[in-house]
Amino acid sequence: MRFRSENERLNDPQAWMINRFLWEAVYSGQIQESTLRLMTIENVMDVLTENFVEASNEEKLQHWVGILLSHPDWTLLDLIRIATDVLEIIPNDAFWGAALIGRVDLMKHYSKDCPDVIHTLPKEEYLAFRLAIMDGNLKFVNYFLGDFMDNASFNEVQRLEGMYDYKGVLRNNRGYSAFCQAAENGHLDVLNRLAKRFPGIIDDMLAKKSYYALELAFKNGHHNIVKLILNPNSWGATKRNLRPAFSLAAKYGHAKAAIRLRNFTRINEFHNWKYDSRTYIYALRMAVKNGHLELAKSMISWVSPGEAVFILNSVFLWAAENGDLDVLNRLVELAPDQVAAMVAEKSCQAFKRAAENGHLNVLNLLVELAPDQVAAMVAEDNYYAFSVAAQNGYLEMVTWLVELAPDQAAMMVAADDYYAFRLAAENGHLDVLHCLVELAPDQIVEMVAAWNYEAFRQAAIKGHTSVVRYLLQFSSVYAHAESHWQENHYTDYVTTYTQDYLQQLDEDWHAFSDAYPDGVYDFRNDEGEPDVLRALHGYYVLRQVIRRSIEGGLGIDTLATVERLLNIPGIKELVVANVRSRRFRDEQQVVSLVIGQRHNELLRLAFSVGHEDMIQRLLAIPAIREAAERHNFYDHEAVFDLRELAQDRESSMHGLTPQEQQSVSAIEEAYQGQLLEEGGAAAVMESLKQQLRDLYEQRPELSSIDIDGELYALPFDWEDMRVFIETHAYMDEALEQQIYNVYLQNHYHSAYRYLSKPNRWMADNASYVYIDRASNTRWSTFEEYLPLIAYLWLAASDESRPPMEEGMGVSERIDLFIRQLHLLNRAHNWDKSREVEKDGRIIREQYDDNEKDKPSCFSGVKRRLFQALISHPLYSPLNQVTVAQFVREWARDYYQARLQDYSSDDLRTMQQVFDKAYDEGIGNPLDNPLIQSLALGEEEQEAITEAFLERFGARAKGWDFVISSTLTACGAVPDNAFVALYASASLYRLLDEIPDQEQPLTNSSGNYGFFQSSGLSEQPDRSSDRNRMPLP
Hints:
This is Ankyrin repeat protein. By secondary structure, the protein is mainly alpha-helical. It contains 55 helices and 8 strands. Strands 1-2 form a two-stranded antiparallel sheet. Strands 3-4 form a two-stranded antiparallel sheet. The chain has a two-stranded antiparallel ribbon with strand order 5-6. A hairpin with a 2-residue loop joins strand 3 (704-707) and strand 4.
């Protein structure tokens, strides 16, 4: 049968006799009913009538062991008869069954009558020998180590000695369990026999750091065994063994053993004081914890006064950290004159450690012990106790600390940039967050926004749903979350919260309408006054609805929802405030709020997502329409606005416009072949990184530092930098920081770091990064954008498509691209602001904190990268102005080459014809044969179309009419672009520079770039006179 538990087995009247070792080794955790029945038989004659012929050898051994355990008083002859006649057990099994029970008489019988048993040693001999040691069966031990081995052959003895050389028998993978149980039960005679037979056993046991036997002897008061183990003649009295032995003596209050150990080698004279002080601290702690104060006093007297103070302080700190009031109280009793010093040690470290681990009872005791240090304990390390209590969710401790120093509550909350609030949110302690908000209601905005809304970000990452939903109730948090709704961990929370908000709003709306059929629903506070903060929250919900109006992830009727939100007066007022000044002030000038991220942002957001019905609805609001008209309906939105970026650090967060998305597709289509030729995105990225490394080394003026008047070029790699710092800035923190600053601000190196995995220069508190916990390394999210970065890099470095912006070449575009990677890498190093004086007034500006890298969030990457390609033909905005400018640029290049076929006289004739037409209004240039010869043929017209397609890719389709209208400006014939573009493309300058002798015309002004000024030095600008074309 199988027992359900060990307790059930031990309560059985027969099975309890079988110890746990035999239960597993012989019975394998279950016993037969027949064995239990045999164990209940009282008369040996009844057993002789049993028949076990059909039983297996294993079952017979189980019966045999059961009988031996249950009938120790039966005679040797009866037992031999049962084994031979009833069980018919083989001699080997009979021998080892007797060995397991420790029946030496039976073992002698079988080894004498059946000498072969000594040559067959099954695994049970280990267990038999160990059981004898544990039970203190000296008779068996002596027999086994003496007569049994003496009867074996020489080779067998060698094998036995090898087998029993402490490793297989005494240790048996359980830490010398047999020896330990003998020590626990006080079997000194057995241990003496083992020590005599195996002289190195104690030293070997202690060398394996197995001190359990010694501890059990201490614990059970077996002083003779302690004396045996600590006998220096039995083991080497080395520091390795003295330390734990000394600690055990202290733990169990064995003063004589402690003194004896001290006399072996004085503990306080060990060479390595730091290591041994830990042993001494542990020993004293054990003595105090277990109430052995007299021994503790003696131990303190054995060391110097300075060492005594150090040890007492260490034990006091440990007790505070672990909440052990008994040790603390006994230390006060042990050293009352040291109490104040122990409390104040290491800047009130005991108070801080107790707070870390939630031991409020210890904090109360410390306050009682040192009432004059309460203020210092609370304020120490910038209110560390309060912050860590909030971090770990100890609400009772948080409130207790506030009660202890109520006048410092606001400072506690604000300490270390609202560390308490941030970490409480990260760890999911909603009750603590409620408490902190109540303690500092006037600091809520700063509290939730600290460290770029770290409280919300970390709560979302860690999955603390209740905390996330609580924080989303604050309008600034929701504004941050909804603008980053596509970030990892944000999407589901923002979606669910917005849906719940709109559902609740719908219910409130209907309830209000039922109660006040003629009323206008608005956000009101308890006093019935407009609730601006609730309205602001509603404004940001409206922004989220518009942002996702095309994506449809909210599962709502978007237009109907927008209509309802806009019909709430409070929200409508904030919409208008955003359009006009982005600032709202109530009538009493009490509330002042900044609305949104940029002017007229709702309409511009609708433009970016391309929702025409939404645009029309918003344009129905007069203020929105007027602002849009003033800004030409934001037609420039696809163009990078440097001034706006400088004023708005979140510009990289704005959604991509449909035209920008189209540009991306065009870039991917144009460079897909090159990407594949170069080996894919990863290969292109490695090439980019190598170029960044090369540029870094080519510009030493950007990567050098002056140390004591000597200029050093800083190495590129992290390991080499660490060697440089150790060589030149060892123990010089200020210089080390200067070295770091050079790396942090070098845009080549910073761009390389952004693309590196890992980035060893990454800040530990950087938010939008991946972390390898095993190596504690971090890197940016660049891998998610690997193909896109590769495509954009190929576009930025493409010399066949030069920039279309004035004054910019390919090298400048490359540098701009690299700087954008640099800004991505340092994006959140610009989160802080400071006050500066400008034009006689104080303003706030963002600045780089010169800390390690804190890269951009996911949503900012695309926008930032695209900003580097503002002048690329495939990315530049395509409209009538852009197309017309391309035609003019093409015409200048074409006619510069074409006019080289004409003589100087012909060119002067053309110039005279145009001058008369413009200056005197005489004649029409189209009537002149020379000028007529400049007309474009079909081949040239096809060439300009092909060039347009090549530059602008798929986006060029549908713009043919603009090309045609540009070529026919002012009624000129379609094929004579020279006349049509004479003034607008500055073609007259080609005639102004007629060479004195027959030689090719050259463009002295260099390349005509997109939007480039047409003025030439040394030449009068007569373009204003040529803005009027003569009628044909």
